[in-house]
Specification:
The structure holds 3 protein chains of 3 kinds. Chain A is α+β, with helices and mostly antiparallel strands. Chain A has 13 helices and 12 strands. A 5-stranded antiparallel beta sheet of chain A has the order 4-5-8-6-7. In chain A, strands 9-10-11-12 form a 4-stranded antiparallel beta sheet. In chain A, helix 10 packs antiparallel against helix 11, helix 11 packs antiparallel against helix 12 and helix 12 packs antiparallel against helix 13. Chain B has 2 domains: 77 residues, Ubiquitin-like (UB roll), CATH 3.10.20; 74 residues, [2Fe-2S]-binding domain (DNA polymerase, domain 1). In chain B, 36% of the residues lie in helices and 16% in strands. Chain B has a 5-stranded mixed beta sheet with strand order 2-1-5-3-4, covered by helices on one side. Chain C has 2 domains: 176 residues, Aldehyde Oxidoreductase, domain 3 (Alpha-Beta Complex); 188 residues, Aldehyde oxidase/xanthine dehydrogenase, molybdopterin binding domain (Aldehyde Oxidoreductase, domain 4), CATH 3.30.365.10. Helices cover 24% and strands 26% of the residues of chain C. In chain C, the strands form 5 sheets. Chain C has a 7-stranded mixed beta sheet with strand order 3-7-1-14-11-12-13, sandwiched between helices. Chain C has a 5-stranded mixed beta sheet with strand order 9-17-16-15-10. Chain C is globular and about 80 Å long. The model of chain C has no long low-confidence stretch (mean pLDDT 96). Classes of the chains: A alpha+beta, B alpha+beta, C alpha+beta. At the A-B interface, helix 2 and helix 6 of A face strand 4 of B. The structure holds FE2/S2 (inorganic) cluster (2 copies). The site of one FE2/S2 (inorganic) cluster has 12 residues of chain B, from loops.
């Protein structure tokens, strides 16, 4: 493509390179290469960060999980700890593209492209993830939910690199679930996705965070549904009511769009699935069985 | 804008000067004339361009040449040769898993990456391993069977050693 | 009887399987020749209108060898498997999105694409017609000047349709529509043409019809067929989508004029807009039966959207008509099939060739009648399906094998339905 490609060997070098004008970061390249071929204008140079070891760290500490921006979805899938403690994260990673894409695509790339259908974003937002951003000017921290603006673009200056994302580990009585609806199993772009983080106090919903994806330009926090569920008993009846509320929200949001009549109905099941899988460890099998198929 | 790059391709060490922003598929096909790697969509959707990079499959239409510095690449040409065909390839022939053949190099490589890691995969693993390889002809059943057969062949061969 | 046969009845390995698993089979895109140049097709971006092409600027691009347009066709600018209604290059009118207008040949594919953007095409857009039911009306705009939009009307009459319905206890009437379908063969169109030492034009291409290709190229280039050779490479899937000409004439013409090997490879997107699709059908079905479940009459009107070119529309709508009753014995039948031009993407052969669309209608009719008569749909099908000796609506007596009844029974068993007692387990 006749673009200069730099392969810095340290993060510092990469940061320095991004200090000049009009460079683009390339990590997995699974989105960028398509874009470069389709677009007329070209960046003056590319900085390949895909093999920087500083960005490939996946650190799991007691309270915190941090994932380097160049960590691939396969790295996530193969991580035993994540599979055990945060299975929804493994599930999400396994639903992205297919194996070839998972092997190359990075978590940082998924975030920085900020596609409305990017699967990692609603999940990370529900987990309250923060982005750590580095440039020659220093390091800054921003909540992922604020990192993506209303136009669906990330608030990343041209000299900055997303270094990692971090979020708190799940507490004793917390759970997180992710569900996605696509047209087929592999290689499918989400039609609707939903992530739910829930904290239960006995059978009372102490706290809940819900994000939907693919239903607007960026992942959306479903505040109405959250406030409805906060403080109520976790049971099928309430989840069903919440699903109806969400359905109403979605139909208003999508308005006259052709996809509205379908998404309005489908979102209910996607949401319920995410909810049930979030609360799975509380043994809601029965609840799931009776709730999963009634739309 | 040519620059130096070194990597290993089908067990051969290469050090060459090239445009590092060229896609790996274009380098393989247009420069090296290794045309076994096919292009079907240029978007990461079909898997016809699958190669193995450091043990993992990748769509070579979505990799820039500069990104494979120091890596080990396997293309379909790096599997068997005329007289010494790879058991996966043999199994594809025996099971009748080949029709138009355009998806087959990619399929075989996805199968290889799987079997190198997991010598006795069950059906679900096989399905997942080829989920990024589109085939418009076969309906996948015979391909799945071929991979199963290949895994048996490879296990047998190991036991013989 | 099969005992003495060498191949029949045996599972043989494909002759080309080994080359294919080794990545050695050559598809046209895999061919490289010395001195080779690259072609890129410029296409219509509107479905209906007139064009004025000015290639003078683009011709100045340093990488360009030549830009071919309708003016460069010495022979016949028209081709098509049955009706010659496709232009090698549009001269004045465009009838669909994607119709070829020019073929840019340059030293590299990138240069050809760049130069293509420099061609100035003035489009004067007209309102097209996109629904074949509209297109059939007298006052509809004509897709091809001076030609009726109705390409073909297939009529089938058997028995007495009025009486058939009169003697029916129940009549079910419904509309059905099927959509356009893309073949998506995995290998996008590609080809290489070159002139050999004897002066013959050789074309390596993945095609379903080398003999048609040869004929069409000869006519367009005004050359005897003997000086054209089509070499069919490995074909990366076709499913009917490689029956019509796409890049064949462009490549042959370019190599013949420039005396150099010329190659082109379509991108997936270009492949989508370049070749035919499956005909969308608009079907109106009326079926009558007696209370005891005997089919009495069926009337069907089937309209196929041919898009901008006829391709195999005639044969496909005929086949749809022949298969309109499905494998069911119906004594009184009236079928009318219409193939109609519109400004939609053109449609042609695709697996099933018209027989694939009609089951959606006739099978749902059967289900609905069975349901309304309170007869199990399996029993209903068994009662009415063709057997040896049955006469189809087209008058064919089925003499050979027709294992349908047997298959229905096996399938019923597998889903736990007992035919003799009518009880599902
Ligand atoms: S050509 Fe690379 S995935 Fe289709
Ligand atoms: S054999 Fe034709 S696409 Fe797989």
């Amino acid at each position: 493509m006749n673009i200069k490609l730099y392969k810095p060997s340290t993060l510092n070098e990469a940061v320095e390179l991004m200090g000049y004008n009009d460079g683009r970061i390339i990590a997995g390249g699974t989105d960028l290469i398509i874009e470069l071929r389709n677009r007329n204008e070209k960046p003056s140079y590319l900085v390949d960060i895909s093999s920087l070891s500083e960005l490939k760290e996946l650190r799991i500490e007691k309270e915190m999980i941090s994932i380097g921006s160049a960590v691939t979805f396969t790295d996530i899938i193969e991580n035993k700890y994540i599979k055990e403690k945060l299975p929804c994260f493994t599930d999400m990673a396994m639903m992205i593209g297919a194996v070839q894409i998972q092997n190359r695509a990075t978590i940082g790339g998924n975030i920085c492209n900020a596609a409305p259908a990017a699967d990692s974003i609603p999940l990370l937002m529900s987990l309250g993830a923060k982005c750590i951003i580095i440039s020659q000017r220093g390091i800054r921290e921003v909540l992922l939910a604020n990192f993506i603006n209303d136009k669906g673009k990330v608030r990343l200056n041209s000299d900055e690199i997303l270094k990692l994302i971090e979020f708190g580990s799940l507490g004793e009585n917390e759970g997180c679930g992710f569900s996605k609806l696509g047209k087929r199993n592999a290689m499918s772009i989400s039609t609707i996705s939903c992530a739910v983080k829930i904290r239960l106090d006995e059978d009372i919903i102490d706290n809940i965070c819900i994000y939907t994806g693919s239903l607007g330009i960026k992942a959306t926090k479903e505040e109405k549904v959250e406030s409805f569920l906060k403080g109520v008993i976790y049971n099928k009846q309430n989840i069903d009511k919440a699903a109806d509320l969400l359905s109403q929200e979605v139909s208003e949001r999508l308005g006259t769009r052709a996809s509205m009549p379908y998404k309005r109905v489908a979102v209910k099941t996607v949401f319920k699935e995410a909810c049930y899988s979030a609360a799975e460890k509380y043994g809601n099998d029965q609840l799931y069985m009776s709730g999963g198929s009634d739309i | 804008m040519k620059e130096k790059i070194c990597f290993t391709l089908n067990n051969k060490y290469l050090s060459i000067d090239a445009d590092l922003s060229m896609r790996l598929i274009d380098f393989l096909r247009d420069e090296l004339r290794l045309t076994g790697t096919k292009e079907g969509c240029s978007q990461g959707e079909c898997g016809a361009c699958t190669v193995i990079i450091d043990g993992k499959t990748a769509n070579s239409c979505l990799v820039l040449l500069g990104q494979i510095e120091g890596a080990h690449i396997t293309t379909i040409e790096g599997l068997g040769d005329e007289n010494n065909i790879h058991p996966i390839q043999q199994a594809f022939i025996e099971e009748g898993a080949v029709q138009c053949g355009y998806c087959i190099p990619g399929m075989v490589l996805s199968a290889k990456a799987l079997l190198d890691k997991n010598c006795g995969p069950d059906k679900e693993y096989i399905k997942r391993a080829i989920s990024g390889n589109l085939c418009r002809c076969t309906g996948y059943k015979k391909i799945e069977k071929a991979i199963q057969r290949a895994s048996e062949k490879m296990k047998e061969a190991e036991n013989d050693d | 009887m099969t005992k003495n046969l060498n191949t029949i009845g045996k599972s043989e390995k494909r002759v080309d399987a080994k080359d294919k698993v080794m990545g050695k089979a050559l598809y046209p895109g895999d061919i490289y020749m010395d001195n080779m140049v690259y072609g890129y097709t410029v296409r219509s971006t509107i479905p209906c209108g007139e064009i004025r092409v000015d290639k003078s600027q683009a011709q100045k691009h340093p990488g360009v060898l030549y830009i071919f347009t309708a003016d460069d066709i010495i022979g016949n600018n028209h081709h098509g498997v049955i009706i010659k209604d496709q232009e090698v290059f549009c001269k004045k009118k465009v009838r669909r999105i994607g119709e070829p207008i020019a073929f840019v040949v340059a030293r590299s594919y990138e240069a050809a694409k760049e130069a293509a953007k420099m061609i100035s095409i003035e489009f004067k857009e007209f309102t097209g017609v996109f629904d074949p039911r509209e297109a059939m009306k007298d006052d509809a705009s004509k897709v091809h000047k001076g030609k009726d939009n109705l390409i073909f009307h297939y009529k089938l009459r058997d028995g007495n349709i009025e009486e058939g319905f009169m003697n029916s206890d129940i009549i079910v009437e419904n509309n059905y529509e099927t959509s356009m379908v893309e073949h998506s063969f995995l290998q996008p169109e590609a080809g290489v043409a070159y002139v050999d030492e004897k002066g013959s034009v050789n074309l390596i291409v993945a095609t379903q019809y080398p003999h048609y290709d040869r004929e069409e190229i000869a006519q367009a280039l005004n050359l005897p067929q003997e000086s054209i050779r089509i070499i069919t490479s490995a074909v990366g899937g076709a499913f009917g989508g490689r029956e019509d000409i796409t890049l064949q004439i462009h490549l042959a013409l370019a190599s013949y004029k420039l005396k150099r090997p010329v190659k082109t490879i379509y991108s997936r997107e270009e492949s989508f807009i370049a070749h035919s699709k499956r005909h969308p059908f608009y079907m109106h079905y009326k079926t009558g039966a007696k209370k005891d479940g005997t089919l009495m009459a069926m009337e069907a009107e089937i309209i196929g959207d041919a898009g901008a070119h006829a391709s195999w529309a005639i044969n496909i709508l005929r086949k749809a008509g022949v298969h309109a009753t499905g494998p069911y014995l119906i004594p009184n039948v009236k079928v009318d099939c219409y193939a109609v031009y519109t400004n939609n993407p053109y449609t042609g052969a695709m697996r099933g060739f018209g027989a694939a669309q009609v089951p959606m209608a006739y099978e749902q009719q059967i289900d609905e009648i069975a349901n309304r008569l309170n007869i199990n749909p399996i029993d209903f099908r068994l009662k009415n399906c063709f057997r040896i000796g049955s006469k189809t609506a087209t008058g064919q007596i089925i003499e050979g094998s027709i294992p349908l009844g047997k298959l229905i029974k096996i399938a019923a068993e597998k889903i736990g339905y007992n035919i003799s007692t009518g009880v599902s387990i």
